[in-house]
Design a protein that fits this description.
Rossmann fold; 45% helix
């Protein structure tokens, strides 16, 4: 299980290159969801505030829950609570460059990963091509005229 400090990761990614400067919170979540799908894990991204009015871009993200902390709490508070409430903290990874969250994770024996390091893992994983099983060439080419005629005779369609 991954718990991700949303805006901390977003700012880290935006500061990496000019290309990534324009990445939005929705795009970030879509990329992270694809990463989680590939590594077969689940995660939560926690953002400060109430988020955009239209949250439809955050729907249907496989293996990823997107949470907004609301107006009365900070994302860091929500993340700390999730760390404390987690029943299997040794299988938990907290993604943030925030010292407070890293300390909270380490106290529970969860792993703490910096945002830049995590993003490097995400990119490396997504750049790998998915391995697909090799299909036999004949599947795409089909059978020959002679084979077709043989089977038509065999099943009694022609004599």
């Amino acid at each position: 299980m991954l718990i991700i400090d949303g805006y901390n990761l977003l700012r880290a990614v935006q500061n990496l290159t000019e290309q990534s400067f324009n990445i939005t919170d929705v795009q970030l979540c879509q990329i992270v969801a694809e990463y989680l799908y590939r590594i077969k894990k689940k995660g939560s991204v926690i953002f400060d505030g109430i988020g955009p009015r239209d949250k439809s871009g955050f729907n249907n993200l496989f293996n990823l829950e997107v949470v907004f902390s609301g107006t009365s709490h900070e994302a860091d508070d929500v993340i700390e609570k999730l760390i404390l409430e987690n029943t299997a903290p040794k299988r938990l990874s907290v993604i943030s460059s925030d010292r407070r969250l890293k300390t909270a994770a380490k106290k529970r024996k969860a792993s703490a990963v910096g945002s830049v390091d995590f993003w490097g893992q995400v990119i490396k994983t997504l750049e790998k091509k998915k391995r697909t099983p090799a299909e036999p060439q004949s599947k795409f080419i089909g059978i020959s005229e002679a084979e077709t005629e043989y089977w038509l005779r065999e099943f009694g369609f022609i004599k």
